[in-house]
Amino acid sequence: MAVKTRGKKLNHLKKVLLEHYRIIVSNRLSATGLIFIIFFLLIAIFAPWIAPNDPWEMMYDSNGEFASLRSPSWEFWLGTTHLGYDLFSQLILATRTTLLIGSISGGISIVIGANIGLIAGYYGGKTDEFLMRFTDILYGMPFLPFIIVLISLFGRHLEFIILAIVLIIWRTSARVIRAQTISIKQRQFIVAAKARGCSDFRIIYRHILPNVLPLLLLYAAFNIAWSIITEASASFLGFGDGETISWGGMLYELWLSGKTRVAWWWFAAPSICIVLLVISLVLVSRAYEEVANPRLRKR
Amino acid sequence: MSRKRVLGVKNLNVRYKTQKGPVHAVNDVTFDVFENEVFGIAGESGCGKSTLIRALMRLLPDSADVFANEIKLGEQDLRSLSDKHFREDVLWSKMSLVPQSAMNSLNPVYRVGDQIIEAIQAHTSDNKKTARNRAAELFDVVGLQPDLMDNYPHEYSGGMRQRAMIAMSLALDPGLIIMDEPTTGLDVLVQERILRRIREIRKEISSTIILITHDIAVISEMSDRIGVMYGGSLMEQAPAIDLFESPCHPYTLGLKNAFPSIRSKGQELISIPGSPPTLIGEGTGCPFAERCPFKVERCSKEFPTVEKLAEFHEVRCFRHDETPELRELASKKGTWLSLK
């Protein structure tokens, strides 16, 4: 019996996932976005096996000559740096770091932002006042001095970079979710749910949350995108983790080398990757509006 | 005649704090509801009907102050209960609501059946399967196909949503069901079907209902007793037949003139000139005084007290003992036009 119900649950889960998949795929733009995200995910997972060379190894071409600042060719697909590092291998390994930072800080920040927004919006009054003034204080916090202080206190480690990004990024999602919560809590069905005797917790997480979900997912995608961009900016300014390489870090190395005007390929590859991933995330999140709002579904 | 009292409300007041000053939305309302009856509350928009029931169900915003000398559900005094206790033990299980604009009272992102199951599970220890069976039963009672449970609210018509809300209100066999404008916004055919269904349900499941509406036709057809509300106060309450055959309050007299009757053909309708009061500030006097053709000096200075004319027939008017003359005058159009 237990096995049977578990099988049933699995089947149900399968059905739900399939439905989500169908909705995303039925929209051409979001399907494209999904393909790119899966593509980047696969690269991130299999990075060490895909990368042909060690990203920190000076390369020599088939003629035995030191391969410094080579433009893309059959031998070095994305060219090389001034120190002869293979950019393709760097890009592949950087995908892993970037995705990791993006998903962790994007995920944590949306959870914090959503909860603060929901609670402030639902309870209103003093709770709202307190939480929103706290958010305002964070709005007044300039990102760069903040990350500089944090990094100089704790060192250039990945976890502190993630922490800094999370602390800065959740504020916008909290505000937006709060606004939407205030609008939804006044709808008739929330009054009906209250009349039914639902607890505050239940109303917030079972009745309001699903209704703000489209917005939440959109902001989850934005947060991931913003985390990636913020990490790139921080790395570009030299506050990245020195031990790992990220897309932003690659741009930083380019800046350090002083070859920005010469090595267009060095600049192009990580930039295109950043833009592509961010756009893909936004496209998929738009399709999610349909998942969360059955009214928009095609029948 | 002594019947079991289901709900007893004494001197209920609700005040909203607003920037323009306090709004006295419900003013000294006293009424009883007895077992197995339909108590109708009639009144025009803004007269405080919805505020009254929201006060009973504790659904008012924080800006509202409620005070009453007694709110008793059965033998239990509701005023002394904590919010949590009230929510868990009274709401829905003893007193349920078919909310105003039931059309929008279903959460658009959940299947209709699941919302009824939620209501059942919130108050009982039933597992999902039992709750689901119960929900299917309820769908049957209100005349909906049980397989519609797995549909979303937007796939329902207005009448179907209304039925679903009625099904939900019946879920826990509450002793008292409050229906706030259950047929407003539906066309007359659907209205009739819903009302017939409510009557059938009453036959099957003995239940006590408070019916709130601005539709005199609906209320006269459904109710055993009727209370007429105006400007936050109950002006007159009487058994339905008495109210229509021997109304006493000038407002009720005016209302009677304003509604067509099937029997008297060609009768001209007379409306009451003016519009309802705003209720802002501490009103003195009778709220109807401004529109009343029979007002005397006293009316705009003192708030009239409730006078008992017969068992169950109460009226809030200073001139309650002159009823026959007033009734005679009220049937003439000139009486009302002279106000303009």
Outline:
The complex is a heterodimer of chains A (299) and B (340). Chain A has 299 residues and is mainly alpha-helical.
Any key phrases for this structure?
heterodimer, A: 299 residues, mainly alpha, MetI-like fold, B: 340 residues, alpha/beta, Rossmann fold, eight-stranded mixed beta sheet, 13 strands, globular
How does the SSE layout of this entry go?
The complex is a heterodimer of chains A (299) and B (340).
Chain A lengths: L1 H25 L1 H18 L1 H4 L36 H37 L1 H15 L3 H12 L3 H28 L2 H8 L4 H37 L10 H11 L6 H29 L7
Chain B lengths: L4 E12 L6 E12 L3 E5 L6 H8 L7 E4 L2 E4 L2 E2 L5 H8 L4 E4 L13 H12 L4 H14 L16 H13 L5 E5 L7 H17 L3 E6 L2 H7 L2 E6 L2 E7 H6 L4 H9 L48 E4 L2 E3 L7 H8 L2 H5 L3
Kindly describe this structure.
The complex is a heterodimer of chains A (299) and B (340). Chain A has 299 residues and is mainly α. Chain A has a single domain, classed as Orthogonal Bundle (MetI-like fold), CATH 1.10.3720. Helices cover 75% and strands 0% of the residues of chain A. Chain B has a single domain, classed as Rossmann fold (3-Layer(aba) Sandwich), CATH 3.40.50.300. Chain B has helices at 49-56, 83-90, 112-123, 128-141, 158-170, 188-204, 216-222, 240-245, 250-258, 323-330, 333-337, and strands at residues 5-16, 23-34, 38-42, 64-67, 70-73, 76-77, 95-98, 176-180, 208-213, 225-230, 233-239, 307-310, 313-315. In chain B, the strands form 2 sheets. Chain B has an 8-stranded mixed sheet with strand order 7-8-9-3-10-11-13-12, sandwiched between helices. In chain B, strands 1, 2, 4, 5 and 6 form a 5-stranded antiparallel sheet that branches. In chain B, helix 6 links the parallel strand 8 (176-180) and strand 9. Classes of the chains: A mainly alpha (299), B alpha/beta (340).
